Amino acid sequence: MVEAVNAIGAALAIGLSALATAWAEKEIGSAAIGALAEKEELFNKVLILTVIPETIVIFGLVVALQILAA
To answer: With contact defined as beta carbons under 8 Å apart, do 6 and 70 qualify?
Structure first.
């Protein structure tokens, strides 16, 4: 029973963090496209800003691994 609850918790950690990342990427990506349409020299800043939300999934993975290790 405990293993099942741990598995559900790990799945929720990964799934919800992936959904949060997708939402953040959508919001940042649409704003980035608008900014790049006006100023192409913002490409480097836009690239960095679109990569930052990926850390949310990494945090979710770390939490899921800690749940499964317990």
So the answer is: yes
Contact indicator for 56, 25 with CB cutoff of 8 Å: no
Distances (CA, A) of 40 to 31, 35, 53, 67: 13, 8, 22, 44
Residue type, 13: A
Q: What is the pLDDT of residues 16-55, one digit of tens each?
A: 999 999 999 999 999 999 999 999 999 999 999 989 999 9
Q: Which domain holds residue 51?
A: 2-69
Alpha-carbon distance of 18 to 47, in angstroms, equals 19
Tell me if 6 sits within 8 A of 64, measured CB to CB: no
pTM of the shown model: 0.80
Q: State the total domains in the chain.
A: 1
